[in-house]
């Protein structure tokens, strides 16, 4: 039984899958680094390759070539990507690089000149061309069968559903628009069709992701709705699976999303969960970030959301040690956190990123001050989490089973996303459970980030 660590970073996740190889079948390995949006890119690449007859190798040694899908958002993530490329080169020798860091090909080839090719983010055709050049396909249409849902790098009971690419924001600390471009939303019918196929294949939870989920469809010039995310969420909520919304900016129309979360049934619906990247609370800090600076009105919005949906869980991420952040500004953030009482919180220490406008700001915060503020922030967030979880003891909740081991079943409540939030453990009477089951439990114990319960 494994507990979810509070500092787990989804941008350092890696995914590998295994598959039986037929005689003579060319085989590709994959390491997927970065956020869930990059994971979806990896799934699309592997699905295309599998449709062309390639096998998927579980290890470097068994592959004819390896694709490394990189993250390039933070310097620490860039270093992780370079390490992964180096590891793949050492163990396999034939490596194709793609993803966000691929937008800086000289950075990669300067460290690893022996890579076969470098492509940028969501450049699927270029990746396929690079694979074809390194390992020609040899399909066998009588043997090579592709699952109707494609290749998945997540457990079969949940799946990420990417609804758009890019971002129209111009946050000074972020280079995502430079790497992935402006907002480009997928058609409503295409998203819904993909979601329907996933649910038909047994997916019980759809995790909706994008760079700015609230802005979905606002790039369509001929749209009929002011906020197309509302009709998309409504339609997804009718499919019979849990629908979890990530990366929701607090635009006014979010107030119309929240009422969809009040009538959740066991068979599915839009979960009472919002993942909103607030980043900070002091108006001066937010202005230096080039983000909306109305933190006080944000508290009013949170109160309105919770009035409409009392069971709503809020998750967010914050940056401490941003250039120019004073002790008073940081204290405002702590005070705001006290008022907001967010359920799940992540925190990053500010890092310079090549190409980000924040690098040129004055008054950069010393590393030891960043660490002190991170420690104090996490202590505050932990205390809030512990108190909010303690209030759940004695209550009945629906949970989805992620893993059944010898000593316990690891589950998540409607308030917990995989990998980044907490777990609920069932350590008695769990033997008949399987991954993907949705069951009702009574909570009998709470920790700092996790819950324990028994089947009700």
Automatic annotation (TrEMBL):
GO molecular function: protein methylthiotransferase activity
SUPFAM superfamilies the record matches: Radical SAM enzymes
Subcellular location: Cytoplasm
Domain MTTase N-terminal intervals: 26-136
InterPro entries: Elp3/MiaA/NifB-like_rSAM, Methylthiotransferase, Methylthiotransferase_N, Methylthiotransferase_N_sf, NA-bd_OB-fold, Ribosomal_uS12_MeSTrfase_RimO, rSAM, rSAM_horseshoe
GO cellular component terms listed in the entry, alphabetical order: ribosome
Family membership: Belongs to the methylthiotransferase family. RimO subfamily.
Protein known as: Ribosomal protein uS12 methylthiotransferase RimO
Organism: Psychromarinibacter halotolerans
Gene designation per UniProt: rimO
């Amino acid at each position: 039984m494994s507990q979810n660590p509070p500092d787990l970073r989804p941008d350092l996740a890696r995914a590998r899958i295994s598959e039986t190889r037929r005689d003579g079948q060319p085989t590709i390995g994959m390491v997927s680094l970065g956020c869930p949006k990059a994971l979806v890119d990896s799934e699309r690449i592997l699905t295309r390759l599998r449709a062309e007859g390639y096998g998927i190798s579980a290890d470097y040694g068994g592959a004819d070539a390896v694709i490394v899908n990189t993250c390039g958002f933070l310097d620490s993530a860039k270093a992780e990507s370079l390490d992964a490329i180096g590891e793949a080169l050492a163990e396999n020798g034939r490596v194709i690089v793609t993803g966000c860091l691929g937008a800086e090909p000289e950075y990669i080839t300067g460290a690893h000149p022996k890579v076969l090719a470098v492509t940028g983010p969501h450049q699927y055709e270029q990746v396929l061309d690079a694979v074809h050049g390194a390992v020609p396909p040899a399909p066998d249409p009588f043997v090579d069968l592709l699952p109707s849902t494609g290749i998945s790098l997540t457990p079969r009971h949940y799946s990420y559903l990417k609804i758009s690419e890019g971002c129209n924001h111009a946050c000074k600390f972020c280079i995502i628009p430079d790497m992935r471009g402006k907002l480009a939303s997928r058609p409503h019918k295409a998203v819904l069709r993909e979601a329907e196929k996933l649910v038909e294949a047994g997916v019980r939870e759809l995790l909706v992701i994008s760079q700015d989920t609230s802005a979905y469809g606002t790039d369509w010039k001929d749209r009929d709705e002011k906020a197309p995310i509302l009709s998309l969420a409504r339609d997804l909520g009718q499919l019979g699976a849990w629908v979890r919304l990530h990366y929701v900016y607090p635009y006014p129309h979010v107030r119309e999303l929240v009422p969809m979360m009040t009538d959740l049934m066991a068979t599915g619906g839009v979960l009472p969960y919002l993942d909103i990247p607030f980043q900070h609370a002091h108006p001066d800090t937010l202005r230096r970030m080039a983000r909306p600076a109305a933190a006080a009105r944000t508290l009013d919005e949170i109160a309105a959301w919770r009035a409409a949906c009392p069971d709503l869980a809020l998750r967010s991420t914050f940056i401490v040690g941003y250039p120019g952040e004073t002790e008073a500004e940081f204290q405002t953030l702590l005070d705001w956190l006290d008022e907001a009482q967010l359920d799940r919180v992540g925190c990053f220490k500010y890092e310079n990123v090549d190409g980000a406008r924040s690098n040129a700001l004055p008054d950069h915060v010393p590393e030891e001050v960043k660490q002190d503020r991170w420690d104090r922030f996490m202590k505050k967030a932990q205390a809030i989490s512990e108190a909010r979880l303690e209030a759940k003891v004695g209550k009945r909740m629906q949970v989805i089973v992620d893993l059944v081991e010898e000593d316990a079943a690891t589950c998540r409540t409607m308030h917990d996303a995989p990998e980044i939030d907490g777990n609920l453990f069932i350590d008695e009477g769990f033997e008949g459970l399987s991954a993907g089951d949705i069951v009702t439990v009574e909570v009998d114990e709470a920790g700092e980030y996790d819950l324990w319960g028994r089947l009700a």
